[in-house]
Amino acid sequence: MGSSILHVHSSQHTYPIIIEPGCRKRTFAFIDQYITRKPTKYLIITDDNVAPLYLEDVVHSFPSSETVETYVVPSGEQSKSFKQYEETVTAALKYRLDRRSLIIALGGGVVGDLAGFVAASYMRGIPFIQIPTTLLAHDSSVGGKVGINHSLGKNMVGAFHQPSLVLYDPEALLSLPEREWRSGFAEVIKHGFIADKDLLEWLVTHVTSFQEWDMDILSEMLYRSIQVKANIVQEDEKEQGVRAFLNFGHTLGHAIEAEAGYGAITHGEAVAIGIVYALRLSEKCFEVNLQSAPYLEKLKSLGYQLDIPKQLSADGLLERMSVDKKAYNQVIRFVLLKAIGKPVVQGMSGTVLLDELKREVK
Amino acid sequence: MGSSILHVHSSQHTYPIIIEPGCRKRTFAFIDQYITRKPTKYLIITDDNVAPLYLEDVVHSFPSSETVETYVVPSGEQSKSFKQYEETVTAALKYRLDRRSLIIALGGGVVGDLAGFVAASYMRGIPFIQIPTTLLAHDSSVGGKVGINHSLGKNMVGAFHQPSLVLYDPEALLSLPEREWRSGFAEVIKHGFIADKDLLEWLVTHVTSFQEWDMDILSEMLYRSIQVKANIVQEDEKEQGVRAFLNFGHTLGHAIEAEAGYGAITHGEAVAIGIVYALRLSEKCFEVNLQSAPYLEKLKSLGYQLDIPKQLSADGLLERMSVDKKAYNQVIRFVLLKAIGKPVVQGMSGTVLLDELKREVK
Q1: Which of A77, A109, A291, B307 is a plausible cystine mate for A140, CB 3.0–4.6 Å?
Q2: CA distance B185 to B191
Q3: What is the DSSP string of A278-297?
Q4: Mind listing the pLDDT tens digit for each residue in B181-207?
Q5: Dihedral sign, CA of B64, B67, B73, B77?
Q6: Is residue B110 part of an annotated ligand binding site?
Q7: What is the pLDDT of residues A19-34, one digit of tens each?
Q8: pLDDT tens digits, residue range A288-323?
């Protein structure tokens, strides 16, 4: 099975994304090859789900001459808290990380976001690398968005801090439960909708189940999806323009996650519902037929529930959407599609959004 | 009395520093003139010392059509805590600041550092301006270093986030207690030592007391001292090189502050002691005579205590210095002078530092 590599250009530096089965076991070799300034020591931050599975593989890739510390946080969205952030900084200080030390985020999006924000802010910023172990993290590990949650909103505190290297080992995904696949696959579908109709068609043909994967198909899917993300973030690192397109499906998605209580519904499950909502708004707004039925059928066949959960209220969701980071001057900014692959950002009034929500929930 | 202006170039943008008596009362006019993208709303963050003195002046500068919120934190170093950071973010969310809102830091270094770090991380970064009200803040308000403290070290968490404007009103300094003048003046002296011998001479002649100030002398001192700082930070925004020179006197200074307990001794009082220590190390290390006696005499005549407080221990101070942000690979990096205006960064062994400390404390 092959190895593929993508390079992402950022204002801070250019960094490689390696997609290669088994690469977690050669972590040190990749660091040695790609990171120019040799780190003084390493802190691997991971969670208690991932630690028993892959932590040893990563640690054992280092020669005994290197100082490698580890810090394990509880798995789950609740670790993206101010409290866990402070505790992780405390660990970094106790291990005496200095400005030339390297943080290694080994895990899914939560670990990457938390460890990345610690790296972004520790001594005003030290380097870090990402070793994603979920499908969802193929998205979050690229582009440098890091941060933590606040009870009033997801990712409300954070930074743009680019990793120095992303090591993606598709083998690590094989241990994922089905729900985690669904959480990540929504972002793959999203990348298709906003930038690559061929990817959508390819997914319909090649992805038939989350239970069995051909390693080449999986690697190709990761490569194609990451390529969409990488192209966008390197064009617009700090979300002044096109990067906002990545928010397709996320304005309502984030609101659903927050309103249901973080963790009750996965990010991707919420985003899938948000995508359907955004598609419907797009068709209404631009009077087009996006012919998205085959893609939505694929989502359903993969076990997605595409309706807004009945226990949520339309007013509550609208309120959540109005504190979205992309909102300003009280106008909610929605990513809509004029066609598949042709996204636009559209200011939407609360009334229109509410009407559309009320077709589904009270 | 005149107005002077300096422009600082950063990778993010160029920002003006206005030094003008009374300018706090024209805050909105300056924002309107210098900030290109009109903010959606304003959050003034200040402390309970400054609020009764100047908050109204700033608020009243805004027309009633603008939304101006205020948030007052307790004065003192203890507000640079994780807890106060989280509470300030909560306030920003409750006031519904969006990515185009402007944070105004009205106060000394604590307010600037805290408010600046909130601005740096809120929704991954929103603009902020500084309105310094202390002499010490003439230093901290320029250059974009923002952050909070950890019990294991000062400013251990933070960011480089450049202000969009610095409004310096020398009138606001006239209410400062003598101890605050001493805290800030140490940075002025430091700027002379590392970059501008003429400034040192000028200070010896023109600054005779902290109790009475000629507004022109005060404005000129601010201008000259800020100019040194601005030149350095625009050459090296992220402390990869020459910016480290600004740390002259600070390695021991920070250690003294932390070891004595934050707030027990002011930043500048500690830095003054650190400067004397660094001068002595410099003379020893480079076998030079820096002829700094007249400047140290000036410091003494202005009420500085230049010995290391007897209750502190040499080992404790050394331990603190070894977690300094500029340390790496266990080597403590000290800024020394080969001559006045000729700083260098020198790796120092613990033994040499300890010997020198033990001339003063156990």
Answers
A1: A109
A2: 10
A3: HHHHHHHHHT-----HHHHH
A4: 999 999 999 999 999 999 999 999 999
A5: negative
A6: yes
A7: 999 999 999 999 999 9
A8: 999 999 999 999 999 999 999 999 999 999 999 987
ipTM: 0.90
**CB pair distance less than 8 Å for A156 and B93:** yes
C-beta neighbour count of B37 within 10 angstroms: 9
Beta strands in chain A (DSSP E): 4-9, 14-19, 42-47, 68-73, 102-107, 128-132, 145-150, 153-160, 166-168, 332-339, 342-348
Q: Is A250 a catalytic residue?
A: yes
According to the annotation, is B324 in a ligand binding site? no
Domains and CATH numbers, chain B: 4-173 (3.40.50.1970), 181-360 (1.20.1090.10)
Active site residue B333: no
Q: Which chain A residues touch B124 with a CB distance below 8 Å?
A: 145, 147, 155, 158-160, 239, 325
Strand stretches in B20-88, DSSP E: 42-47, 68-73
A chain contacts of residue B98, beta-carbon cutoff 8 Å: 325, 327-329
Instruction: Indicate the pTM of the whole model.
Output: 0.91
Chain A partners within 8 Å of B160 (Cβ) = 124-125
Among A88, A98, A154, the residue to mutate for chain B (most B Cβ within 10 A): A98
φ, ψ for residue A261, nearest 5 deg: 90, 125
Which of B5, B18, B22, B19 lies closest to B171, judged by CA? B22
Phi, psi of A312 (to 5 degrees): -90, 150
* B342 labelled catalytic: no
